[in-house]
Amino acid sequence: MTRFDFNHPPFDQLEPAERQTLEAQADIVFFGDDETILGPGDTVDALWIVLKGIVREMAGDEVIGVYRKDDVFDARALVTGATAHRFVVHEEALLLSLPRAALIALTERNLRFGAYFFASVSEKFGVLSERSGSRELQTLLTATVGDVELRTPVCVEGSLSLREAARTMKENKVKSLLVRDGERLGIYTTTDFREVIIEGIPYDTPLASLANFRLASVSRDDFLFNALLTMTRSNIRRLVVLEGGEAVGILSQVDVLSYFSNHSHLIAQRIARATTLAELAGAARQITRLTSILNSHGVKPVQLARLVQTLNAQLFERTWALVAPGELVANSCLVVMGSEGRGEQILKTDQDNALIIRDGFPADGVEAACQAFSAALEQFGYPPCPGGIMVSNAAWRFTESALAGQLRQWTWQPAGDALMNLAIFVDAEAVTGDAGLLASAKARLRELIADDAAFYARFAAAIEQFDTPLGMFAQLLTREADGEAVLDLKKGGIFPIVHGTRALALENGVHACNTHERLLELARLGVLADEMVEEVGEALAFLLGIKLESGLAALEDGQVPGNLIAPERLSAPERDLLKDAFAVVKRYKQQLRHHFKLGSF
C-alpha cells in the first residue's frame, strides 16, 4: 500500500514499534470530486491524512481550511468524538484512515504524541517553537549561565592594597577580583589599573576605595541569552554569577561570546567605538547576519526582536551623535515609532522616526542634521518610509508646543491619516536626547483622551480595515507573486493583534509599547482573561516567526523582505497552526468589537 511518511508531526513523536502498530491498522480510501467525507455532527471514528488530492473544510458556505498532501484532519473532532464542520473533496483524493481507538491508545502511552490532540492552541504554538529550537543540540535559548564553564571568583578584603591586589591577580591568573568591604561586595579589574597609573594613585591605597560596588549580576540558573542582553544593554564585560545569594563565578564577555559565531556584544562595542558612518554601516550589516544566526539557533522571535531593538537603538543613537551638533542632541529627543518602537521589528524595515525639539531652541542646523540622519539610515539598509514618517520630513519634526497642538488635532479633529499617525506616535520610544520631552508629550496625550469612550472606539475601529476570515487560504490569498498565491500576514493577523492591543492599552493607561508587555499588563488589570492573553501572545509570536523565516529566505534570494508569504512553502504543521493563529485573531477581534461597541460605527 502507499506508505505515509511518519517523519511529519505529530507522528515523528512515535517510537518505531508504535509506528508499525498504527500503520498495520491503517486503510487507504479513495474519494471522488465533491464527495463529502465528514458532515456536521458526524461521529468521528478515524483521523484522515491526505496522500493525494485536495480536501476543503467548510463552515456553511465559508471555506475555513484547505488540506493537501500530508495534511491531517480532523484532530479536534477526534478528541470530542464529533465534527462541527463539513469536509468535502475539492480534487479527487487518496486518503489514509487511522482508527480513532488506536490513536487514543497511543496518546495514553506517548504524552508528546498526545499533546498534539489535547493541547490548547497556545500550547501547540509552543510545541512547534520547541521543535524548531531543537535544530541545535543546545540553543542559546535553553542554555543557562550554569552551562558555561565559569571562572571561579577570587575574593579579597577591601583593606588589601593595590600592590597586593596586582600580585593576587598575577598569582591566580585572573583579570578581576571580588572585593568584600563589610556587607558590600564589589569588583576590581585589570582595566581599573589604568586609572591608578594615569592619576598617580599610591600603590598602598586600600582596594575598597577604588572598587566598583554597583555590581551587575546574573543567576546561575538564568538563561545565557539574558546575560548577553544585560551585557549588551549596559556595555559591560563581566557579570557576577550568584547562587543562593552567594557569588559563585565570574561570567566574562569571552565566555558568552564563545556561544556565538557573530556576537551581539561585539556589535555593540563596534557601534560605540565608531567614528564614521562607514564604520556604522558595517555594524548594521552585522545585525542582519546575527539575526539569521540566532534564528537558526532557535531563539524565539519575541526575544530576538528585543535584542535587535537594543542594537538598533545603539546604532541610531551613535548615528545621531555623528550627524547632529551636541547642542541639538541635548535639546531634543530622537524617537522611533511603529514596530521599531514596540520592539517587534527584526529585519530592517521602513524608517519610522521623529524629532521633538525643546521650545526656544534655535532651528539652525536642524534640517541638515535630520536629512543626514535619514540618508545614513538608508545607507545602512533601512529604506525610507513611503509615508514620509521620518525626521527628514518637516512634518515629523516638532517643537514641544507644536507637538502638543498636533496631538490635539489628531485626537479632537481627526481627519485623513490623523488616527493612523496617532497610532504610530503611541508606540514611540526615546532613542537619545532628552527623554523627558517624549514623556511630557505622552502625558499630555493621556490628558486629552481621558475617559473619552467615543475616541477609543474610533481609534480601535481600524481593526476592521482588513478581514480575517477563517477561510484564509481561500479568501486571504489576494495576491500572486510569479504565479504563486501569497498571504498578507500583516493585514490578516499581525495588525489586528497589535492595534487592538494598542487601543486597549491606551484606554487603560498602560505605558508599555511592546505588544506582549501590553497584553500581560492588561491581564494583570483584569481587562483581558489570562487564556486570551496567552493565545493572542503565542499567535503573534508565531506570525512574527513565520514572517521572519520568509524574510530571511527573501534576503538569501536577493529580494526585499515583506509581509507576503506563500502558504504552499510552509510545512503541514505550520499551515495547521497558521489556521489556528487566524482563528485566535478572529476571536480577539470579536472581543474587541464588543468591548469598543464597534457595531455602531
UniProtKB/TrEMBL annotation:
Q: Which UniProt keywords apply?
A: CBS domain
Residue span(s) of domain CBS: 149-205, 211-267
Q: Does the keyword Zinc-finger apply?
A: no
> Which GO terms fall under molecular function for this chain's record?
[protein-PII] uridylyltransferase activity
Keyword check for Cell membrane, yes or no.
Answer: no
Which InterPro entries has this protein been placed in?
CBS_dom, CBS_dom_sf, cNMP-bd_dom, cNMP-bd_dom_sf, Diverse_CBS-Domain, DUF294_put_nucleoTrafse_sb-bd, GlnD_Uridyltrans_N, RmlC-like_jellyroll
Task: List the transmembrane segments.
Answer: none
Gene3D superfamilies per the record? CBS-domain, Jelly Rolls
Q: Where is the Cyclic nucleotide-binding domain?
A: 10-104
Short name of any one Pfam family annotated for the protein: DUF294_C
- Name recorded for this polypeptide: Cyclic nucleotide-binding/CBS domain-containing protein
Write down the species: Crenobacter caeni
